[in-house]
Sequence to fold (64 residues):
Amino acid sequence: MVCKKDISLMSADELSAYVEKVRAKRRERAKHYYDNVIKNDPEKYAKFLNKCKKANKTYYHKDE
Fold:
């Protein structure tokens, strides 16, 4: 069972340290998924690149 922390009881310093710890953990998890699942499968990697290119064109309104 995962014990959740009550952030309302933390001081500002404790809260900022906790937030950075959680962010680092999520970055590592995302990097692990990308490196081991997306990059190792050529089909998934091609889909990922197409998705990124489409979003980039939509966001920046480029017609390339």
In short: DSSP finds two helices and no strands in the chain. Helices lie at 12-38, 42-60.
